[in-house]
Structure formats: structure tokens, C-alpha cells
């Protein structure tokens, strides 16, 4: 059984304790990750600070070349990483699975390499020249989740490296192996100390560590609040991309046959284990039955099983706790009169397999509507008045994403502007791009990722005044 190493200062760390990682499809051990010590955490932060002194001063081209080299290394090792990712996370190799995630990593690295933050001229008058510089913030602590472990790691790492920061990353304990291996690979393209990784319980101390200047965290809202509290003592800069309970509103004029596939994948991408997935679907009463039938026809024809079998489009839920939560929310909906259109009961045998589940005849106030299920269960909610649907969509404490589905784009835009979310899609749900900012409002986060605005989150501003 392979043991995967922490990387500190460009070298493998010698750890005394190891923990197993379970394949959610088989419940067998995939490999082991190291339990880093306090001394090793302190060393990782220290070498990142040392490396920052020189890395922050490197020419712009050096950092661009490094990101492109990182992309080359990921591409060369994509097959290994995708197989390891499928084994520890559960997602299929094919389709919108591990190979897709690796392509996302490569694309994001190259896209970020192409971004820049040039000096801005704020004033050029007879009295003065005023300039605005963007300077790297320092050492970044990256804390990543288990749903898209590699791609989200790249979302954190790429902009930090691009602007001249150094990084200490702590991956989720459910899916650390592929990230450990990827960081080992990426170090081939970087000076020692620029990119470090620690695992184990000690990693939870990163947000409060005095040697950290910025924390970027992707995960649940409750954990995000703890991260924010821990970072507050040192007044560290933070970017938090937290939970979502995204609502989609299907307007009465929507062509259901044209949007059904988009609705389905909006809700079930990555087996529903995506912060920005469609979690609540509001459908006008005039088309409610048609939508229920269309989604059921798609869901019941999707093969589910071990992700290493290329015939499977869906895999298991990643871990037992999440599996139990999805089952609990569906059972609660059934007890309150929810109508199961498909799925609704765990699959027999080994693995955390819960079938694609559609629940009709539910309403606000039920747990499956009010809470983030983060799994393969989608509630379909009937409405009669569009203004009421908007109000219900906005009733959540979360505000990551939302969507409006209509044949009338102008009408859809009018409704979309009323949705309280950081991102709103029209006639699709969930796609993100490296050049378009993404972030949440309300309890779904602070700050943004992606685009120039996301790049700026890893910098501090310095205004320069030059009299003439």
C-alpha cells in the first residue's frame, strides 16, 4: 500500500504516523497520508516565508513560465492523478469526472498565467502623478474540500503563485492523496519553499498561524465561520467560498424539452456534491408535471457504480457522513408527503451509493429545501406566482448561485437581477470560467475567485504619489 508524502521546502517530510484513506466505492483502503507534527507545520510556514522574500521579487515572466510549466507537469501526469482521484473521491474517470477535473486544472493554470496586474495610473496632471501598485500579500494558507480536491487546489494556488505569493496547502482528510501527489509534481516547476503541503489535524492551525498572511478556504459555511474567527486574531486577509443552496426558477414560457438536460446537470454535476450546484428547483404549476417527467426520464437512465468502470456516469457519495445526511433529508421529505419520482433508497452492497433522487410535492420549510443536501437529491417545488418564487428563492441565508430558465432572455435577465446570489446563470446552472469572477453573498462567502478580481485578492494595494 502506497504512502504519500507531505512536501515541505521542496522535500518529502519524514512523518511518524499515517492514516488510511477509504475508497467510497469499495470501502477499501486506497493509500495512506502522513500526520504532520507541529514542528513540521511551523517549518512549512517558515520556509514559505523565506521563499517569499525572493519569489515576490521575481520577474513577471518567471512566474508566468512557472505556471505554464506547472500545467505541463499536470498534463504529463494526468492519467495517474485522475486514477488516484477516482479511487479516493469516487467520481468516474470519464464524463464530468476525474479526467474533466484534471483538464480544468491544466486550463486554469494556463489561463491564470495569461492574467496580469499592471500598475494603474490614477492621475497624471500638472500637479502630480498618482500610481496604484498591486503587491503580493505574503504567505497564503489554502484549505481545500473533498468534492473537487485538485481543481479547487489549483484555484487557490495558481493566483497566489502568479502574483508572487507562496503557499502552504492543507487538503481535506477524506481526499488528501491526489493533492499530495500533485503538489509533489508541481514542485518540479517551482523553487523550493514556494509551494508546500501539510496533512493531519495540525493543519487546522494554519488559519491562526502567525506566519500566515492570507487564508483562502473553500468548504461549508459552519467551518468557514471557524476559519474566519481563527484568522481574525491576526487580521489576516481572507477569501471564503462557502456553502450554497442555489435556487433555479423555471418561468412559464420555458421550453422544457430544450432545458431539461441543463436542469439535470445543473443539479447533479459531481453527484450533486458541488457548492454551486442547483439545490432547489422552482417550477411554475403550468409546467410542473412536464418538468418532473422530463427529469425523471433522464435520471433513471444514468448508470451508477465504481468510477473506474468507464461505463458508469455517476459514482458514490464521497463519505459516509454525507451519505447519511442525504438519506436523512430524503427520508424526512418522504415523511412529510414528498413524492419520490426516482431513487429515494440507498443501493445495496458495499460503497456509499445513493441513487439519483428527485423529490416532488415538497415546499419551503422542509429540510430538503431549506438545507444544503450536497448530494444526488433534488427537490422540485411548485409555484404559481413569479414574484413569490423570487421571494422564496431569496429566503435562504445562502447566496452562492442561482438561475433563471426562460425563452425570453430579456425577461430572464429582469428576474435574474432580483436573485440574491454572487452568480446567476440564464438557461444553465453551474459552469465557471477562469476569467469570470465567482463568489458568494450572505452566508456563502467573502471575496471572489477567478478573473482579475480574484487575482487582486492575493495582493495588497499601494498608492504612490509623485509631485511634479
TrEMBL record:
Positions of the Aldehyde dehydrogenase domain:
19-463
Which sites are catalytic? 241
One function term, GO molecular function aspect: oxidoreductase activity, acting on the aldehyde or oxo group of donors, NAD or NADP as acceptor
**InterPro entries per the record?**
Ald_DH/histidinol_DH (IPR016161), Ald_DH_C (IPR016163), Ald_DH_CS_CYS (IPR016160), Ald_DH_CS_GLU (IPR029510), Ald_DH_N (IPR016162), Aldehyde_DH_dom (IPR015590), LUC3-like (IPR044086)
CDD domains for this protein:
ALDH_AldA-AAD23400
**Highest taxon above the source species:** Bacteria
Q: Give the record's keywords alphabetically.
A: Oxidoreductase
Family the entry assigns: Belongs to the aldehyde dehydrogenase family.
What is the protein named?
A: Aldehyde dehydrogenase family protein
Say which species the protein is native to: Dasania phycosphaerae
- Taxonomic lineage from the root: Bacteria, Pseudomonadati, Pseudomonadota, Gammaproteobacteria, Cellvibrionales
